[in-house]
Amino acid sequence: MKISLKTVAYGFAAIALASSVRARAEAPESPTFSKDILPILQENCQTCHRPSGIDLSGMIAPMSFMTYQEVRPWAKSIAKAVESKTMPPWDASEKYHGVFKNERSLTSDEIETIVSWVKQRAPRGNPKDAPEPIQFSDSGWNFGEPDLVIDFDEPFFVPDDVQDLYEKITVELTEDLLPETRWIRGTEFKMGSEVVHHIIAYANSPENSGDETRGMIGGNAPGTEQSVYPEGYGIKLDKGTHVTFALHYHKESGPGTGTFDSSQIGLLFHEKDAVVEHPLELSTVAHGAFQIPPHHERWKVGGSRTFKEGITIISILPHMHLRGTEAKYTAVYPDGTSEELLHVPAYDFNWQTGYEFEEAKKLPPGSRIEMEFWFDNSEGRAELAGINPDRAVSFGGPTTDEMDLAWMTFAPTKPVKSD
């Protein structure tokens, strides 16, 4: 069972994966489903809200919005969710509109159109006005058919008495699976059971000698999307590699709660002759040695990391647990100027979004990344998140402890020659 910080907005889990900066005509005075609402749903909602809709690391839309008959019972809930902006699920400050290519948002005209339609009793209109249905690929993977799927050798059983369990499962990439070294251009994780909270995957090759800090190939948590990298950027996967799933299982403990898990990793590869001159690193900026006092409403934790060489940042992802409320990334440049890269004013534990820059962010040598995270250990938070505000909380793996991980996916800006 996943602990929720927000009641799933008005009974459904996700409207929208499509991004967007898009221009629309002014909201119509008398909107109908066929002419005005269905195009909005097609562009923003049906990626999730359809039979076999996408799985965002365990967050799955529980109903379909493909037809009028399916949408009409949810009309009032949809209007409330889009008007309050709890859906689409996107927590970055509005000042970053257009900065991230995976932004999920509706325009003010689209919101007004939906609200107006519901106020006018949600008419269907003329079915002939409806656009053609979208044909979705149902490969089972969000980014299409992977070039390689990595499976457990056998299912893993999570016992009845477990609440939080950290487990490492290593899989050998035999020559049949990986006959030669390749460059990864995309990763996607498929949860094998509902008790998986998150997965981090490491490639343990002879080159990194099992050093996990050098071998990370990806990770996910509730609400996280798949990753696909630009041309020229990738993660090297050596022939003869062992891949380790570092799993965090979280559930209620008790008789009959045990379950089997068979999670998977899907990989896309660059073409064999592709030139990859920017090897990606996935790592964090963090403090780690903090303690949040009991009953404190706004405890700040900060940390920083200076980069000797110039780097190009592809994406960033703040990670906290149930007490996390706000996150901020700031770049401080060698000339003393600074730039805020991301502000998440209302962090949501169940929608851990990776923010992918529309234009990769280049930092000159000597730049510093500063992270600032805020936590709430008060009685009010306890009612919302089911925490115990009577104890001091430190960095730790269980969901009821805390983390302050400012994840970054970046590469050297200066091209690196590869074998």
Question: Approximately how much helix is present in the residues?
Answer: 10-25%
| Multimerization state | single chain
List how many beta strands DSSP finds. Answer: 24
- Give start-end ranges of low-pLDDT stretches: 1-24
Order of helices and strands: HEEHHHEEEEEHEEEEEEEEEEEEEEEHEE
Largest sheet at a glance? 6 strands, mixed
- How many helical elements? 6
Shape: globular
Structural class: mainly beta
Strand content: 25-35%
Radius of gyration: 22 Å
Question: What distance lies between the first and last C-alpha atoms, to the nearest angstrom?
Answer: 45 Å
Q: What is the arithmetic mean of pLDDT?
A: 88
How would you characterize this protein structure?
The protein has 419 residues and is mostly beta strands. It is built from 6 helices and 24 strands. The protein is globular, with a radius of gyration of 22 Å. 40% of the residues are buried. The strands form 7 sheets. Strands 3, 6, 9, 10, 13 and 14 form a 6-stranded mixed sheet that branches.
